[in-house]
C-alpha cells in the first residue's frame, strides 16, 4: 500500500507503519493523520495482519508532535476539527482488536507521546526523550495527552509533564511506566519485531477479548468490569483455539492454533 507520509509494510503477519517525514521530525499534519486512519483500517480488515508496530523514520524522532506550522494560524473551530481527527484515529488504533506496539527511537513529544499511548505497549531506545511540551507554545495536549497519560502514569506525574512541559529520558519513562521496555538503539526494531511476532502465534480471539476487557473495563465500576471479564472469558470457550490450547496442555504437546 502506497502512502505519501507513511511507509506501510507487512512482515511475517506484522504490519509496520512508519511515520515518514524525517525532515520535520515526523511531525503529524492532517494529511499524515488521515493516512494513519487509513492504515489502521487496513490492519483491522486484513485477517493476515496479526499485530501492528508504529515507528518513526530517520534516527532523530518517533514523532515530534502535531505539526506546528500547520496549526499556528488555526481558529478554534478549525483546531477542533484537527483535534477531533486525531482523537478519532487514535481511538480506532487503541481499540483495534489486535495488539499494537509503538517502537520509539528519539523524540516522542506532544502528539508523538499521544500516538504511542494509543498503542498497547511502548518499547523505546535508550536515547529516546519524551514530553508533553504543548504548554511551552501556549497549548495543551489535544490528542489524549491529558487523559491517557494520567491513566498510564498517574495524576501527579501527568500534571508535572503536561503543566511544566519538561522532557524525560528513557530511563525515567520506564520508571514511571510510560514505556514497557528499553533497548539499545540498534536493537530496538529487531526486538520489537521479535516481540510482535509472538502475537502471531497466539490465539487471536483470546487476544481480542483480553484487550477488549482491559480497554472497556477500565472506566466501569468494578462489578460491571468483572461482569465484562466474565463475558469476554466465557466467549473464548466458543473457539477451536481454546479447545486446542487446553487439549494440547493436557496432552503435553505444543498447541496448533487456527485463529478461530
Ligand atoms: N511541528 C512542525 N515542525 C517541527 C516540529 C513540529 N512539532 N518539530 C520539529 N519540527 C521541524 C523543525 O521546525 C525543523 O524544521 P526546519 O529544518 O525546516 O527548520 C526540523 O523539524 C528539525 O527540528 P529542529 O531544528 O527544531 O531540531 P532540534 O534537534 O534542534 O530540536 C526538538 C528537536 C526538541 C524536537 C524540537 O524540534 C522541538 O521542540 N519540536 C517541537 C516539539 C513540540 O512542541 N511538540 C508539540 C507540538 S503541539 C502538539 O503535539 C499538540 C497536540 O497534542 C495535538
What would you note in describing this structure?
With 260 residues, this protein is α/β, with parallel strands linked by helices. It folds into two domains: 6-199, Alpha-Beta Complex (2-enoyl-CoA Hydratase, Chain A, domain 1), CATH 3.90.226; 204-250, Lyase 2-enoyl-coa Hydratase, Chain  A, domain 2 (Orthogonal Bundle), CATH 1.10.12. 47% of the residues lie in helices and 17% in strands. The protein has helices at residues 30-45, 68-71, 76-94, 111-117, 148-153, 155-164, 170-175, 188-200, 204-217, 222-236, 240-250; strands at 6-11, 14-19, 51-56, 61-63, 100-104, 107-109, 121-125, 129-131, 167-169, 181-183. The protein has a six-stranded mixed beta sheet, sandwiched between helices. Helix 1 packs parallel to helix 3 (76-94). The radius of gyration is 19 Å and the shape is globular. The mean pLDDT is 97. Residues 24-25, 27, 64-69, 86, 107, 109-111, 114, 133-134, 137, 139, 141-143, 145 line the site of acetoacetyl-coenzyme A.
The percent range for helix content is 40-55%
The major sheet is characterized as: 6 strands, mixed
Strand order in space, largest sheet: 1-2-3-5-7-10
Q: From N to C, what is the helix and strand string?
A: EEHEEHHEEHEEHHEHEHHHH
Instruction: Indicate the CATH topology of the largest domain.
Output: 2-enoyl-CoA Hydratase, Chain A, domain 1
Structural class: alpha/beta
Report, as a whole number of angstroms, the end-to-end distance: 27 Å
Name the CATH homologous superfamily of the largest domain.
Answer: 2-enoyl-CoA Hydratase, Chain A, domain 1
Q: State the shape.
A: globular
- Give the tally of β-strands: 10
Q: What is the total domain count?
A: 2
Strand content: 15-25%
* Count of DSSP H/I helices: 11
Poorly predicted ranges: none
Amino acid at each position: 500500500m502506497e502512502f505519501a507520509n507513511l511507509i506501510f509494510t507487512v512482515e511475517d503477519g506484522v504490519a509496520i507503519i512508519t511515520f515518514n517525514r524525517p525532515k520535520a521530525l515526523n511531525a503529524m499534519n492532517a494529511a499524515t493523520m488521515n493516512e494513519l486512519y487509513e492504515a489502521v483500517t487496513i490492519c483491522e480488515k486484513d485477517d493476515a495482519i496479526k499485530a501492528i508496530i508504529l515507528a518513526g523514520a530517520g534516527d532523530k524522532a518517533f514523532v515530534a508532535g502535531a505539526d506546528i506550522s500547520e496549526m499556528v494560524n488555526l481558529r478554534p473551530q478549525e483546531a477542533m476539527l484537527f483535534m477531533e481527527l486525531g482523537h478519532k484515529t487514535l481511538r480506532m488504533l487503541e481499540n483495534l482488536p489486535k495488539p499494537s506496539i509503538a517502537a520509539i527511537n528519539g523524540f516522542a513529544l506532544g502528539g508523538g507521546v499521544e500516538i504511542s499511548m494509543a498503542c498497547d505497549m511502548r518499547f523505546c531506545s535508550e536515547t529516546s526523550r519524551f514530553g508533553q511540551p504543548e504548554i511551552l507554545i501556549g497549548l495543551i495536549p489535544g490528542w489524549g495527552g491529558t487523559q491517557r497519560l494520567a491513566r498510564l502514569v498517574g495524576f501527579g506525574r501527568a500534571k508535572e509533564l503536561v503543566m511544566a512541559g519538561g522532557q524525560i529520558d528513557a530511563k525515567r519513562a520506564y520508571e514511571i511506566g510510560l514505556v514497557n521496555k528499553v533497548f539499545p538503539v540498534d536493537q530496538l526494531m529487531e526486538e520489537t519485531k521479535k516481540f510482535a511476532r509472538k502475537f502471531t502465534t497466539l490465539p487471536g480471539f483470546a487476544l481480542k477479548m483480553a484487550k477488549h476487557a482491559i480497554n472497556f473495563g477500565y472506566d466501569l465500576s468494578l462489578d460491571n468490569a468483572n461482569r465484562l471479564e466474565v463475558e469476554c472469558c466465557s466467549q473464548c470457550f466458543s473457539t477451536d483455539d481454546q479447545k486446542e490450547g487446553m487439549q494440547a496442555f493436557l496432552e503435553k504437546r505444543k498447541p496448533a492454533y487456527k485463529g478461530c
